[in-house]
Design goal:
By secondary structure, the protein is mainly alpha-helical. The protein is built from two helices and no strands.
Length: 98
């Protein structure tokens, strides 16, 4: 038993081709929009990182102050350990070797 065809074969082919073109168009639109969004995000993140790193950079005056602070810290630690060694040497009264 044969089922009746409600549409002609030419109409069926035309509908299929039209739907295929619509699918390709929609896929292209999604692809381009996705690429544009990813590109904008990449540029935005890169720009934000560069801006943050540029603003985080210390000025020459701040660099000198930081260097002086670090040197002062190191010297204070050296003095502290020298004082500790003197206290230990004065308690035991043993000669120290240098």
């Amino acid at each position: 038993m044969e089922f009746p065809n409600l549409i002609e074969p030419n109409v069926k082919t035309h509908l299929f081709n039209t739907l295929q073109k619509c699918h390709e168009y929609r896929t292209n639109v999604y692809l381009y929009s996705f690429n544009i969004v990813v590109f904008v995000l990449f540029i935005g993140i890169t720009g934000a990182v560069l801006y943050y790193s540029y603003n985080k950079k210390l000025s020459p005056y701040e660099q000198k102050q930081k260097l002086l602070k670090e040197q002062d810290y190191v010297l204070s630690k050296i003095r502290f350990y020298q004082d500790e060694q003197k206290k230990i040497a004065s308690i035991t009264r043993l000669p120290t070797f240098e």
